[in-house]
Amino acid sequence: MKRLFDFTVSAIGLLVLGWLILVLVIAIRLTSPGPGLFWQDRIGRGQKPFRCCKLRTMAEGTPHVATHQAAAASITRLGRWLRRVKLDELPQLWNVLKGEMSLVGPRPCLPVQAELIAARERRGVFALRPGITGRAQVLSVDMSDPERLARIDAEYAASRTFAGDVRLLAQTFIGAGRGDRVAL
């Protein structure tokens, strides 16, 4: 049922919000050099790598590091706003449609985040598809605390329900959580 829900919502989301994604891609290109979409290798279900799609919020040429390790100066003005309202995640509906991600689940990590990967592996978190949002994001826990994040992800995995996922989506939609923090 979860996969059917993910597929249906992401397909409808892309149909209804495709125009907005296109407008934001154009706005990004007009306000900073580089592409509007950003593709990054992430670790998915079963530790299988996949290419995650997002709207670009950082300056072109910013090193591929976890957000909490990136300098605040690398985020563009428009990118700051996109992150605050969480619109930078919209293109991930494509990853959900393809089955690489879910609407709700642990956020996908970068291949270089060895400590987080090890902590998630110990707790069986990679049995789940990564999500656009999840319990940790709603609680404002980001990837800067890998052990705590993996523990929350494992708690989600052990107690997840369809109703709980809908609640997490609603909390994300109304603005719960602060997203990934950026280094100062």
From TrEMBL:
Which parts pass through the membrane? Answer: 7-28
Any single GO BP term: polysaccharide biosynthetic process
| Taxonomy, superkingdom | Bacteria
This chain's protein is named Sugar transferase
Kindly name one Pfam family recorded for this protein.
Answer: Bac_transf
Q: Which organism is it from?
A: Aurantimonas aggregata
The Bacterial sugar transferase domain, residue ranges: 2-173
Q: Any keyword Membrane?
A: yes
